[in-house]
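Lecture notes, part 5. Sequence design as translation. It can be helpful to think of inverse folding as translation between two languages: the language of shapes and the language of residues. The source text, in structure tokens, appears below.
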């Protein structure tokens, strides 16, 4: 799951980026409000962690601008501003969650996963489609109750498909979910990962929509 971290404190930002990566997130880190707004306008991220006291543009101004533009990317505000009026203003401007520093990394990860699930209409902790169940917290996958071992990329790709079950995703959209900044993407990388998922989880799991992309049906397709 690819997220944007907007934090100008170098020590805290480095710690959050490293910690969230260890918990399975792909993290792009920006250090000012204008950069945060620019990246969130691109809508390549599943969610954002937004500090408020950012240089060049305050986090609340970034949030207000994005929501006025109709951008619905889930935003978790992470800030030292703990006054009730600040929290109320942040939520009224469109924040999906508001957390006071310092925060436990496991709690932050759980809140981010919950935000993304809700944004995709998936209220349950585990994602399920056909006979496959994915647990994002433990990063495990089961098919018909049996544990299946996936690589990191395979897991992330499956998670993207299951969050968007019954929706066609282009190769470009899938690449944006799997690769953070500076990562070189081989031309056939997505196809290789999809081939591996079909081999491990069943050939019918992911459908090819010719000329458009791929789709994971929530129910087994009828013959």
């Amino acid at each position: 799951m690819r997220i944007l971290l907007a934090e100008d404190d170098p020590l805290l930002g480095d710690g959050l980026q490293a910690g969230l990566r260890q918990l399975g997130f792909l993290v792009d880190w920006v250090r000012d409000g204008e950069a945060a707004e620019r990246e969130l306008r691109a809508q390549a991220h599943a969610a954002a962690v937004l500090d408020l006291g950012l240089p060049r543009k305050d986090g609340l101004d970034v949030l207000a601008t994005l929501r006025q533009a109709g951008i619905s990317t889930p935003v978790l505000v992470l800030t030292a501003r703990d006054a009730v009026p600040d929290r109320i203003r942040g939520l009224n401007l469109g924040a999906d969650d508001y957390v006071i520093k310092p925060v436990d990394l496991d709690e932050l990860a759980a809140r981010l996963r919950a935000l993304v699930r809700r944004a995709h209409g998936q209220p349950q902790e585990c994602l399920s489609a056909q006979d496959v169940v994915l647990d994002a917290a433990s990063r495990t996958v089961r098919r018909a109750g049996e544990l299946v071992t996936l690589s990191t990329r395979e897991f992330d790709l499956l998670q993207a498909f299951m969050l968007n079950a019954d929706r066609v995703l282009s190769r470009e959209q899938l690449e944006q979910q799997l690769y953070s900044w500076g990562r070189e993407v081989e031309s056939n990388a997505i196809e290789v990962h999809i081939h591996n998922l079909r081999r491990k989880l069943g050939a019918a799991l992911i459908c090819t929509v010719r000329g458009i992309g791929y789709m994971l049906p929530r129910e087994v397709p009828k013959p």
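The translated text above is only one of many valid answers, since several sequences can fold into similar shapes. The chain has a mean pLDDT of 91.
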